[in-house]
Amino acid sequence: MRGLCLNSTIVRPGCFVRNDALEFLSHNGKSRGQNAMQVSNRRVSHYIVCGKRLFLRSRNFDPLSIKNRFAKCSEKIVYSRVYGSPPDVPVREVHVQDGEDNEEKSEVISDSSETTQDIVQGSIRSWGDLPPRFKLILTTALAFVICNMDKVNMSVAIIPMSHQLGWNSTTAGLVQSSFFWGYCMSQLPGGWLAKAFSGQRVLRAGVLMWSLATAAVPSTARILPLLYLCRLLVGLGEGVSPSAATDLIARSMPLSERSRAVATVFSGLNVGSVVGLLLAPFMIEHFGWESVFYAFGLLGIIWCLLFESAVGSSMLGNGPTTTEPASGTLYSSGSENGSSSSQNGSLRQKQLESAVVSNGKPHSLPQASTSTDNKTPWKAFFKSPAVLAMIYAHFCGNWGHYTLLSWLPTYFSQELHLDLTHAALVSILPPLASVAVTSVAAPLADSYISRGYDVTLVRKVCQTIGFLSPAACMAFAALSPKLNPWMDVAILTSGLGLSSFTFSGLYCTHQDISPKYASVLLGITNSIGAIPGVLGVALVGIILDRTQSWTLALFAPSIFFYLTGTIVWNIFASSKPQTFES
Question: Per the record, which residues fall in region Disordered (predicted)?
Fold first, then answer.
């Protein structure tokens, strides 16, 4: 790409340039006529302002990769919203690198004065010292903690509820699976809403919905249709949270930090499982099973009230308004041949100046596009082998995860003959192992990517470990009927802990292939991935009532899907960026 001259217009540090400014920039300096059209056709997604020059980069450019040679630059990087890129951030250093079809290239290596290294070294000592993007990630992770607390509370409370209300395994399975009815229904709408209205708004609305519905469970427990409806509403609220979080991560975190960001947010689910399984038995024994739903619902309501003040308004919509062209190109030219419209210099200068926004917050998220012309390329999604592989892998992984999450307390209670408290405590071990594995797997994946390893290879290896490990452990447990019960617990804990490698595999691929449509893609894959929650959880109860076999009801289906998911993933998965509009 050729550098575009800004002529006499100086873009100062602290300013933001909207996409529509490029129509005027492209007709000045070196880039005129056909050259400007070539720039447009290349679908550039990033550009850097340094002094009086504006440098363009291709859509594969990772603006926050760390390189070896640096040149000082105190100007500003400006992100295009064409591919759903991260927000505008300060630039401290720039790497100048030769490349194909480029006269000049610049690459940002730092997005703020506060970095992950600063946190590790202890220079950041309070919440206020954290960079805004870290505040956003940690607060989102807290929402996911509450999310799984409200999910696992039923898997513990179902035991005393079944005894008190006279439910069999089939009814208990239907009560637990009703959550996933709503969870499945809200995935695609959640992805669309996150893209249209921004992830933070959708996340806050979802937390409020599931929290209110959770608090309403005790009053509806004796009327099954109403109880199903309450749990369905909990699922609806929680169903939008993955897409909302994916939207936030795609727009706020660079590729070099993305695995850790995804792992941090989604590991909140494991932390929530641990906290929920710790608190629920104690509260049930001392205050009754109703207290769990009241208390956990209240936590979500408090989170909603404190979210904006904790993160800061600068991260929640006060950033520069960006224009997102419908076609996916960087700008919409006035004519097809790229020739300049007949406007005088003073008018063009005013238009350019009006495109420079000088009062934005340097750390704020770009606002979601409100363009009515921007159509989601649904057909292109379902024609992509990589997307289809993501869909099937998500289905397979969730079959094992949801069925085990819902039935492990009951399994441990029946197989180990434990009371409610001890069964729940044993059920904590797999989520704890997942947290431990995630803390190692995510930095490891990021380190290999930053060292130049192929992103697709890293994602495939992580996903393979995350699928084959639980499959092998379940097979061993199922084929060893005389196994010591506590050895059974250790094996299942190890397998489910290693399954957290998927957070650095499948769950990063949505952002890898298309930051612009990351939330929509996760909505698609999570919609299909929620089906095991509806069918699988209920099916376990039905098969268990008929066969009294945990191997047939719980382990065998999960092993099958883990194995076939591994095969499909390694054949078709890819993390290469895709332009679905073309």
Answer: 96-115, 325-345
Q: Could you give the number of structural domains in the chain? A: 2
Round to whole Å and give the CA distance between 538 and 550. Answer: 14
Would you say 186 and 242 are in contact if contact means Cβ atoms under 8 Å apart?
A: no
Residues 362-403 have pLDDT tens digits of: 344 444 444 434 688 889 999 999 999 999 999 999 999 889
Buried-exposed string 505-536: b where 16+ CB fall within 10 A, e elsewhere = bbbbbbbbbbbbbbbbbbbbbbbbbbbbbbbb
Rg (CA), the chain: 25
Q: Domain range for residue 18?
A: 4-112+330-357
DSSP secondary structure code for residue 97 in this structure: -
CA distance 26 to 340: 9
- Yes or no: say if 345 and 43 are a contact pair by the CB < 8 Å rule: no
Residue 148 belongs to a domain with what CATH number?
1.20.1250.20
Task: Please give the Cα distance from 49 to 65 (Å, whole number).
Answer: 18
Burial class (CB in 10 A: 0-12, 13-18, 19+), 208: middle
Q: Are 129 and 279 in contact (CB under 8 A)?
A: no
The angle, 0 to 180 degrees and rounded to 10, between the axes of the packed helices 241-252 and 187-197 is 40
Q: What is the mean pLDDT of the chain?
A: 71
